[in-house]
Design a protein that fits this description.
Blueprint: H1 2-15, H2 26-36, H3 40-55, H4 60-74, H5 78-91, H6 96-108, H7 112-125, H8 130-142, H9 146-159, H10 164-179
Helix pairs in contact: 2-3, 4-5, 5-6, 6-7, 7-8, 8-9, 9-10
Length: 184
């Protein structure tokens, strides 16, 4: 029994990538699949795989710090979460997910400008990050920039057609814009 368990662990570790992040080759295939999906359950499964790949930094230390940061955020300990994410950003600045996670936290802390800067970094590293694009749209919309919000929402929905709430919001902005009379 003990040998079987050890063999299973070794086999599992062998199929897991040693390094995965926004540069993982599997993402191209997954994004192609996601673009063609028409049901929410299928989209959720592919989104989960994409998010899992994005979450693997290739560094055990970074992965542990990211997990601890998430625990802190879940416990509403934003200061600790931010310190941990700041450490990860210093250790691995080319890791898109740290910038996205930090942006999420900054929005929760009502620091939209800082969040927008972090989202820009995340999108520079992973332009297909549909969740980052959706958040850019939300921040732009809250700031009153409907054109930027609409552009971000449309890009997010192009990448992930099953972002139904984002697609609805883009439609509402489009409708509002078309109904509004031009300035005189």
């Amino acid at each position: 029994m003990r040998h079987r368990l050890a063999a299973l662990v070794i086999a599992t570790l062998a199929v897991l990538p040693a390094h995965a992040d926004q540069n993982d080759a599997r993402l191209d295939r997954l994004f192609a699949q996601l673009a063609g999906i028409r049901t929410a359950p299928e989209a959720a499964a592919i989104e989960g795989k994409i998010t899992e790949i994005w979450s693997l930094s290739g560094s055990d230390t970074v992965d542990v710090l990211m997990a601890r940061a998430q625990l802190a955020v879940d416990a509403q300990d934003f200061a600790t979460g931010k310190k941990l994410l700041d450490s990860v950003a210093e250790m691995k600045p080319a890791y898109a997910q740290v910038w996205f996670r930090r942006a999420e936290l900054l929005v929760a802390m009502d620091s939209q400008q800082e969040a927008a800067a972090d989202l820009e970094k995340a999108l520079d590293l992973e332009p297909r990050h549909f969740r980052a694009l959706a958040m850019v749209g939300q921040i732009a919309e809250a700031a009153g920039d409907k054109n930027a919000a609409l552009a971000a929402y449309r890009r997010a929905v192009t990448l992930n057609p099953m972002l139904e709430a984002i697609a609805r919001r883009a439609g509402q902005i489009t409708d509002d814009t078309e109904k509004k009379p031009p300035p005189t």
